[in-house]
Every structure is written in C-alpha cells, then in structure tokens.
Amino acid sequence: MPEQTLEQKISRWEDQRAIKNLMGKYALTMLLEERTEAFDRFWSRREDVCLGFNDGWYAGAGAIKGYYRAQADRTAAESALLEKLFPEKLGALSKEKKYGVGHLDNRPVSAPVVAVAADGQTAKGMWTCFGCYTAFDPQYGPQSHWNWSVYAVDFAKENDNWRIWHMQYLTELDTLCGSDWTKPARPAKERPEFASLAEAAVPGPNVPAALHEPWSKTRTAAKLPPLPRAYETFSETFSYGMGGQTA
Q1: How far apart are the C-alpha atoms of 228 and 9, rounded to whole Å?
Q2: CB contact set of 186 (below 8 Å; sequence gap of 6+)
C-alpha cells in the first residue's frame, strides 16, 4: 500500500477505534439482554448480510432478526417459568424486572485485529471471546457454561457509520463450569420442571453448513478464518460471509 499522509493515518486510527467500540457495544448489548434492538443498532442494510455459527448461516436481514427475536422469546419463556416456580420471590415484580432473571450471557471480546480498507469503505476484524453464560436446559434446568469463541467480521461504512456486514461466531469450546472438558459433561440430575422450555427452542440457521469443528481430543490444531490483512478495496480481499473464508 502507498505511504499514507498524517491525515490518512489519523482517519484510519479513528476508524479502527470506532470498529472496536462497535464490537464492545455489541457484546454489552447481548449481556444486557437487548437482542431485539441488535439488528437496527449494529447491522448493515445490505441485502447479503449474514450471521454464521459452527452449524450454519442466518442469511438475510429477516433471518438475523428472527434469530435475535427467538433468543429474546426464549429468555421471556425462562423468566415466566421461574416466576411460576418461585412465585413468592418473583410474583410481585413487574414484567420488565422479571425479564432475564437468572440469565447471564457475558461474552466479552479481546485481542482485536482490525484492517481498514485503503478506500475507507469496508473493514475486517477478528476477536477472541472468553465468556460464560447460563443455559436453562429443558432436561437439566439451569446450567453454567464456559465458552471460548472467535469472532470474524466484515464491516461496511454507511452514512459515515460502521456497521456489521458479515459475522462469524465460531465456538472453539463450550463446556459446563467445573467440568473436565476432555470428558463428556454430565449434569448432576434431571429437572423435569424445566421440560416446557423445549417448546421455546431457538430455530437453527436457515442455511445449514459445517463452518467450524470445535475442539476435541482428536481434532488437529484450530482451523480458523485467516486474519485480516491490509487491502485496497473489498474486491481485492476475502470475505467472512457466505461463500467466503470459513474454518
């Protein structure tokens, strides 16, 4: 890439800071249980937006919004069930205060690697994520998990604001807290009172695909999408979206 002027370097630094802040805000939005607002807050308005997980893609705005909505509906179902199970503690609370009770989804991002295109219209970034969350399993009830994952994201600048264009959230390891992750996790006992949560399951990706194999004792070294690297325009680099670079 040609030598940059001081003004160009400052602009690039400001873009990188804005992108890092965007991803921090995204992680906090998940923690604050504000998923129904996530698409409008952070996502591009391009037609080919997509959100990828180990098992496939939520392709298109409708599918991504539906994913966030299903997560929010699941949390609401969990809250309603807990109110039913513990009316003396939760019955007097408002609907807003009961929402998300007992729930935790904390997945902070770290180790950012960000590359902004020379034309300033797109960018790429990767982050690691060492998080924890509470899952209300229909068979075993509340379960605490550790989660190690990687974000790989393409960004587009729209109306002078950076927005998520393509995102992969690839899980390397997901295990019960306090367990030996080299062995199958076995919850202590079954909790039939949580069986109704099976009806609130989050639908799978609308484009199933094998994007990433999580860690196992027999898996070879981690295979992840390539790190962002300097580029002029998006047509000259790879994509983290569908048909692009996956693990």
Answers
A1: 18
A2: none
pLDDT, position 1 = 57
Quick one: tokens of 1? 């890439």
What gap in Å lies between CA 152 and CA 172, rounded to an integer?
13
Is residue 212 a contact partner of residue 69, using CB atoms and an 8 Å limit? no
Q: Is the torsion defined by CA of 179, 183, 185, 188 positive or negative?
A: negative
Helix (H) / strand (E) containing 131: strand 122-137
Main-chain phi, psi angles of 56, to 5 degrees: 145, -170
Cα radius of gyration rounded to whole Å, the chain = 20
- For tokens 């068979």, the residue is 139
Distance CA 68, CA 206 (A): 14
The residue ranking higher by pLDDT, 180 or 66, is 66
Residue 148 pLDDT = 96
